Amino acid sequence: MQRRLILAALIVALPGAWVYTKAMARLAPGDPPVMAAPAEQADLIRVDKADRKMELWQGERLLRSYAIVLGAAADDGHKRREGDERTPEGRYVIDWRNPRSSAYLSLHISYPDASDRAAAHAAGQAPGGNIMIHGLPNGWGWLAPLHRLRDWTDGCIGVTNAEMHEIWALVPDGTPIEIRP
Questions:
Q1: Which of 15-19, 46-50, 59-63, 173-177 comes out lowest in average pLDDT?
Q2: Do residues 130 and 85 touch, judged by C-beta distance below 8 A?
Q3: For 32-66, b where at least 16 C-beta lie within 10 A, e where not — what string?
Q4: What are the tens digits of pLDDT across the range 50-87?
Q5: Reported pTM
Q6: Using CA atoms, how far apart are residues 61 and 160, in angstroms rounded to an integer?
Q7: pLDDT (mean) for 176-180
Q8: Which long-range contacts (CB under 8 A, 24 or more apart) does 31-34 make?
Q9: Is 50 exceeded by the pLDDT of residue 107?
Q10: What is the rounded distance in angstroms from the CA atom of residue 162 to the CA atom of residue 95?
Q11: How many angstroms separate the CA atoms of 23 and 10, rounded?
């Protein structure tokens, strides 16, 4: 009997959560943070997928380190095709930013590059794209203490909203990003 009540509660709650998520995705967080002074900005991002860690570097100086989440299938290797939920591996750049994304702020990673497109094309598949560093989906920021319990993105790098606020200010467009297995 108790299992039936729990199942009934989930059936009622899930559509509400979906509606909430869709509505909140339309809400932007407001004005993005101001960029840090150039002397404080990162000139390299290093991501270690195995350790679920992202570091911001300026020359030989570590500026910040963050615990991250990745694509739900990130441990299966380099992103190969659209929808595989893997996080890419290799060297890319932050090539644009979106202050009005469906997740709290986002920095776009330049995946796919020419070799990613060629490999996907040779396999008869689309490479996918829209890989970002971002905060939590808009409206779900209160889940920050729990969001690292499992990888949940579609291939992106997820951090808390507070961390994303800081990252946005420290990482200018054109910053290289190395994503290691």
A1: 15-19
A2: no
A3: beeebeeeebbbbbbbebeebebbbbbeeeebbeb
A4: 999 999 999 999 999 999 999 999 999 999 999 999 99
A5: 0.84
A6: 23
A7: 98
A8: 31/99, 32/97, 32/99, 32/105, 32/168, 33/165, 33/166, 33/168, 33/169, 34/169
A9: yes
A10: 22
A11: 20
Q: What distance in Å separates the CA atoms of residue 135 and residue 158, rounded to the nearest whole number? A: 6
Element (H or E) spanning 2, and its range? Answer: helix 2-25
Complete DSSP assignment for 143-158: GTTTGGGS--BSSSEE
Residue 15: exposed, middle, or buried by beta-carbon count in 10 A (0-12, 13-18, 19+)? exposed
Of 64, 46, 45, give the one whose Cα is nearest residue 181: 46
Whether the CB-CB separation of 54 and 60 falls below 8 Å is answered with no
175 and 59 Cβ atoms separated by less than 8 Å:
no
Measured between its terminal Cα atoms, the distance across the chain in Å is: 46
Q: How far apart are CA 81 and CA 92, in angstroms?
A: 17
User: CA-CA-CA-CA torsion for 111, 116, 118, 119, nearest 10 degrees?
Assistant: -150
Q: How far apart are CA 31 and CA 36, in angstroms?
A: 15
Question: Among residues 26, 60, 30, which one has the least CA distance to residue 168?
Answer: 30
